């Protein structure tokens, strides 16, 4: 188990990916054609900035999004892809009407997004759809033999073994986009010499808060991340530390490390994006200002380094760098719930992810309290103990079952709030 790289223009390279080797043909001097899934979200917008800064290297062949017609229309008119897709059929119909003057195919629904992900001629898919909705189109790209820059954690949380088996079977390159996994990717050498991985976490907006204070948290407070500009769901995950828990599971599958060799530390400055400790005591870290355009540029250009509009890191101005232990799991249970699901294995991470998505949505709608999020996840995990899902259909079925159970648990929490 391991990771693969993406080829530099004009070369042919073979990069280890676990027990097999991945051979990636050279794209020559032709710009790399990119399919961007989740184009209207935070990662999607930042990806397009990197593409716009490097027009000789990249072109956009496909754009896909959920339902933001205005933004996708503007992106399509600027980048002129061959195909666009919207998961919301009504939004797709409206987009088709608006883009009638362009020579572009407009696809509709989740299957349309999957078709755009596997569009012929695509060199790289940037998987940036948030949540479980990103699994099917990303798998479609892998099965089409297309390299993937992975920003969607849920592909590996929901279906880690299945997803990595497909990556190996189709011999595709897989490069992480999350800043933490990108950092590890950049400094990860011979896995036989690695003692542990250390993921850094900012601590979110509630670092140092007691359980009593957390009872009163509002969605607006939870969305106010001190370091990163992220979407709503990921911001809540950061506030609960579930985002770091999902990253632990992702790191397990990407780098072949057991949970006991993946640690988390709080690093409030978000300058050191993660570290790898080796058997000789050395620790290698990747550093940079907290800006997602850097790991995106790494994934798009690897193994070359490409320009971005990201400001340089000023070490003197940064001053000290702090590293602190994670908070008490009694106050922030989500990180330990993710570790427990990873240790349990089977379908537990799929259940964890589904329950978290339902709980976060309920919190954002102000139907449950902040501390109800881990309660709902724990209750759902206690009610479902599935075997490892052996197919995409099995993953989807388990995800559906877990969401139903989580909705029941959320209803129970609402009853407790109102009693």
Question: What would a concise description of this structure say?
Answer:
The strands form three sheets. A seven-stranded parallel sheet has the order 6-5-4-3-7-8-9, sandwiched between helices. A four-stranded mixed sheet has the order 11-10-12-13, with helices on one face.
Give an account of the 3D structure:
This protein has 419 residues and is of the alpha/beta class. The protein folds into two domains: 31-152, NAD(P)-binding Rossmann-like Domain (Rossmann fold, 3-Layer(aba) Sandwich); 191-288 and 310-418, RNA polymerase sigma factor, region 2, helix turn helix motif (Rna Polymerase Sigma Factor, Chain: A), CATH 1.10.1740. 45% of the residues lie in helices and 16% in strands. It has 17 helices and 13 strands. The strands form three sheets. The protein has a seven-stranded parallel sheet, with helices on both faces. A four-stranded mixed sheet has the order 11-10-12-13, covered by helices on one side. Helix 5 (135-143) links the parallel strand 7 (124-127) and strand 8 (147-150). The longest helix has 27 residues, at 392-418. Residues 1-27 have low confidence and may be disordered.
What's the topology here?
Elements: E1 13-17, E2 20-24, E3 32-37, H1 42-53, E4 58-65, H2 69-79, E5 83-86, H3 89-98, E6 105-108, H4 109-117, E7 124-127, H5 135-143, E8 147-150, H6 154-170, E9 174-176, H7 179-187, E10 194-201, H8 211-214, H9 219-223, H10 232-240, H11 242-255, E11 262-266, E12 272-278, E13 283-287, H12 293-301, H13 315-318, H14 334-344, H15 348-364, H16 372-383, H17 392-418
Helix pairs in contact: 2-3, 4-5, 5-6, 6-11, 6-15, 10-15, 11-14, 15-16, 15-17, 16-17
């Amino acid at each position: 188990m391991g990771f693969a790289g993406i080829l530099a223009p004009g070369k042919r390279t073979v990069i280890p990916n676990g027990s097999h080797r991945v051979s990636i043909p050279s794209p020559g001097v032709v710009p790399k054609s990119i399919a961007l899934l989740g184009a209207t979200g935070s990662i999607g917008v930042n990806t397009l900035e990197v593409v716009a800064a490097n027009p000789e290297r990249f072109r956009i062949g496909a754009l896909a999004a959920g339902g933001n017609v205005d933004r996708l229309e503007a992106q399509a008119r600027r980048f002129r892809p061959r195909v666009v897709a919207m998961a919301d059929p009504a939004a797709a119909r409206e987009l088709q009407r608006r883009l009638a003057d362009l020579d572009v195919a407009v696809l509709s629904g989740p299957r349309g997004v999957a078709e755009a992900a596997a569009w012929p001629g695509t060199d790289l898919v940037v998987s940036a759809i948030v949540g479980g909705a990103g699994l099917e189109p990303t798998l479609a790209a892998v099965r089409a033999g297309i390299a993937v820059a992975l920003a969607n954690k849920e592909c590996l949380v929901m279906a880690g073994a299945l997803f990595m088996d497909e990556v190996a079977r189709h011999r595709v390159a897989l490069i992480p986009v999350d800043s933490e996994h990108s950092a590890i990717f950049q400094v990860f050498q011979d896995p036989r010499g690695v003692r542990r991985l250390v993921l850094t976490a900012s601590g979110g907006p509630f670092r140092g808060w007691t359980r009593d204070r957390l009872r009163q948290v509002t969605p607006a407070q939870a969305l106010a991340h001190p370091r990163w500009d992220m979407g709503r769901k990921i911001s809540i995950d950061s506030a609960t530390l579930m985002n770091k828990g999902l990253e632990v599971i992702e790191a397990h599958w990407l780098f072949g490390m057991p949970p006991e060799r993946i640690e988390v530390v709080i690093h409030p400055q978000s300058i050191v994006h993660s570290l790898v400790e080796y058997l000789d005591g050395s620790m290698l870290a990747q550093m940079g200002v907290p800006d997602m355009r850097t790991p995106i540029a790494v994934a798009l250009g690897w193994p070359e380094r490409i320009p971005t509009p990201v400001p340089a890191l000023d070490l003197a101005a940064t001053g000290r760098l702090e590293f602190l232990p994670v908070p008490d799991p009694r106050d922030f249970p989500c990180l330990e719930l993710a570790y427990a699901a990873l240790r349990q294995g089977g379908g537990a991470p799929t259940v964890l992810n589904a329950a978290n998505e339902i709980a976060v949505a309920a919190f954002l709608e102000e139907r449950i309290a902040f501390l109800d999020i881990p309660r709902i996840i724990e209750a759902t995990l206690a009610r479902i103990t599935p075997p490892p899902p052996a197919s995409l259909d099995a993953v989807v079925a388990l995800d559906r079952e877990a969401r139903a159970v989580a909705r029941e648990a959320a209803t129970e929490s609402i009853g407790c709030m109102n009693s």
